């Protein structure tokens, strides 16, 4: 890890290559302020105390440590250039500055920070016993956020799911999301047990059952309307109620779940056109927007009802496409929180206080990777997050909706930084 951070203050994100670029932020004119930490009287930075219980915060998590656990943030704190990347981009400059950023090097850096031996050791340990339950053997759930099913017998694997809880950007440890792999035939019952245990009302599926002739996910729901299947051991009965194509390549299914004598309904939304190891086409931005609206609607329902209903999101491995959609939603959620407040509340001494409306794709993806291994898997997905947010800001006219005082404070800050740069 030491070779990640050069003595010159530049950040090497080479992934081991000898001729890699170094990420030098000095030419960008970005602010060097860093949140998620406090300044000691001697000028040193310290991480803020991390909360364990779910707690709504009146501001948004743009940068700083992941509340559940953060193994990479110590490296952010050790280098000012990495802090600049983590701090993000002011919303009114996002389109311009995102075009100027070296996203390939930025993504290499986030990988370097979050694909360490420490992260690897944090994956669930019982490899031999659980290997048959993992779709991909090198991708196992992190221990500290793993979803544990209620164990029904002496078999430790009865509680096992390759799934992790994921937080939103406006609460500490709310764990509203579950990111998981596409079920295998052998894990189908455990998948539905998880749906029932976590009272899931929405499942987002971002893959096909087969892609390029390869199995990517089990057909874990009934194929025909009014068809049912029952799991004898758990007693769960799953029935397909309806199927509707609501947009090209976007299918909505209504499913009924009966547990003994209780029944409830859930929505299963499947997007068919997102390629593995890739990103949606620009022509599918509206479809991605529709998926995000479903997530937003069910998230708000959960908040309004003060319930603990989770939202399950999965693709094949549950990291690439899944992580990308979660990153976009968390960025939108944070910005909407900023927009909702007439002025940004400053909480000196509290977790991740902010004074500027900013977007940190790097920070959001880094924190997701602290909750489930390798979230946002490839460069094209990382670039897609930037592209989607840029278009969303433009189409929603978001910047004009933001509180004027916030925008003005950021503009003034940028002018000060630019003036300072000229004087050096």
Instruction: Quickly name the level 1 CATH class of one domain.
Output: Alpha Beta
Q: Give the helix tally.
A: 13
Radius of gyration: 22 Å
pLDDT averaged over residues: 81
C-alpha geometry: globular
Strand order of the largest sheet: 7-9-17-10-16-15-14-13
Total beta strands: 18
Low-pLDDT residue intervals, each spanning 5 or more residues: 1-53, 342-354, 404-424
Q: Provide the β-strand percentage band.
A: 15-25%
What is the fold-level CATH name, i.e. the topology of one domain? Answer: Protein-Tyrosine Phosphatase, Chain A
Mind summarizing the main beta sheet?
8 strands, mixed
User: Termini distance?
Assistant: 31 Å
Residue share in helices? 25-40%
CATH architecture of one domain: Alpha-Beta Complex
Q: Structural class per helix/strand content?
A: alpha+beta
Would you mind describing this structure in some detail?
By secondary structure, this protein is α+β, with helices and mostly antiparallel strands. The chain has a domain at 105-394: Protein-Tyrosine Phosphatase, Chain A (Alpha-Beta Complex), CATH 3.90.190.10. The chain is 33% helix and 17% strand. It has 13 helices and 18 strands. It has helices at 73-77, 80-87, 94-100, 103-114, 117-121, 127-130, 188-197, 285-304, 320-340, 361-368, 379-396, 398-401, 404-423; strands at residues 11-12, 22-23, 37-39, 45-47, 55-56, 89-90, 163-166, 171-172, 177-180, 202-205, 210-211, 214-215, 228-230, 236-247, 250-259, 262-271, 311-314, 358-359. The strands form six sheets. Strands 7-9-17-10-16-15-14-13 form an eight-stranded mixed sheet, sandwiched between helices. Strands 1-2 form a two-stranded antiparallel ribbon. Strand 3 and strand 4 (45-47) form a beta hairpin. It is globular. Residues 103-392 form the Tyrosine-protein phosphatase domain. Residues 1-52 are annotated as: Disordered. Residues 25-45 have a biased composition (Low complexity). One of its GO terms (molecular function) is protein tyrosine phosphatase activity. Residues 289-383 form the Tyrosine specific protein phosphatases domain.
């Amino acid at each position: 890890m030491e070779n990640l951070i050069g003595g010159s203050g530049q950040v090497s994100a080479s992934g081991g290559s000898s001729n890699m670029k170094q990420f030098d932020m000095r030419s960008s004119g970005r602010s060097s302020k860093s949140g998620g930490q406090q300044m000691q009287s001697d000028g040193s930075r310290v991480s803020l105390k991390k909360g364990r219980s779910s707690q709504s915060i009146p501001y948004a998590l743009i940068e700083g440590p992941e509340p559940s656990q953060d193994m990479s943030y110590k490296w952010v704190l050790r280098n000012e250039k990495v802090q600049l990347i983590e701090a993000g981009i002011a919303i009114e400059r996002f389109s311009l500055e995102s075009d100027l950023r070296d996203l390939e090097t930025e993504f290499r850096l986030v990988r370097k920070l979050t694909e360490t031996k420490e992260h690897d050791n944090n994956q669930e340990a019982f490899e031999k016993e659980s290997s048959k339950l993992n779709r991909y053997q090198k991708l196992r759930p992190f221990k500290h956020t793993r979803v544990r099913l209620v164990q029904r017998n002496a078999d430790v694997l009865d509680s096992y799911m390759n799934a992790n809880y994921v937080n939103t950007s406006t609460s500490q440890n709310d764990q509203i999301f579950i990111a998981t792999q596409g079920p295998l035939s052998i894990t189908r019952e455990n998948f539905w047990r998880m749906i029932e245990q976590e009272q899931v009302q929405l499942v987002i599926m971002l893959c096909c059952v087969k892609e390029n002739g390869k199995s990517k996910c089990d057909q874990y729901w009934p194929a025909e309307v009014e068809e049912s299947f029952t799991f004898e051991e758990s007693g769960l009965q799953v029935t397909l109620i309806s199927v509707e194509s609501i947009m090209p390549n976007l299918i909505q299914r209504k499913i009924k779940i009966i547990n003994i004598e209780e029944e409830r309904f859930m929505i299963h939304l499947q997007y068919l056109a997102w390629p593995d190891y890739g990103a949606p086409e620009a022509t599918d931005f509206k479809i991605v927007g529709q998926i995000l609206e479903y997530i937003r609607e069910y998230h708000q329902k959960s908040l309004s009802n003060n319930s603990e209903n989770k939202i399950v999101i999965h693709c094949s491995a549950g990291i690439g496409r899944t992580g990308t959609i979660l990153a976009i939603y968390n960025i939108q959620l944070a910005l909407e929180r900023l927009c909702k407040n007439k002025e940004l509340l400053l909480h000196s001494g509290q977790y991740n206080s902010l004074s500027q409306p900013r977007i940190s794709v790097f920070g959001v993806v880094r924190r997701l990777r602290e909750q489930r291994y390798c979230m946002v898997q490839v460069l094209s997905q990382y670039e897609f997050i930037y592209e989607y947010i840029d278009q969303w800001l433009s189409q929603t006219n978001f910047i004009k909706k933001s509180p004027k005082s916030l925008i003005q404070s950021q503009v003034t800050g940028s002018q000060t930084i630019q003036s300072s740069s000229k004087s050096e």
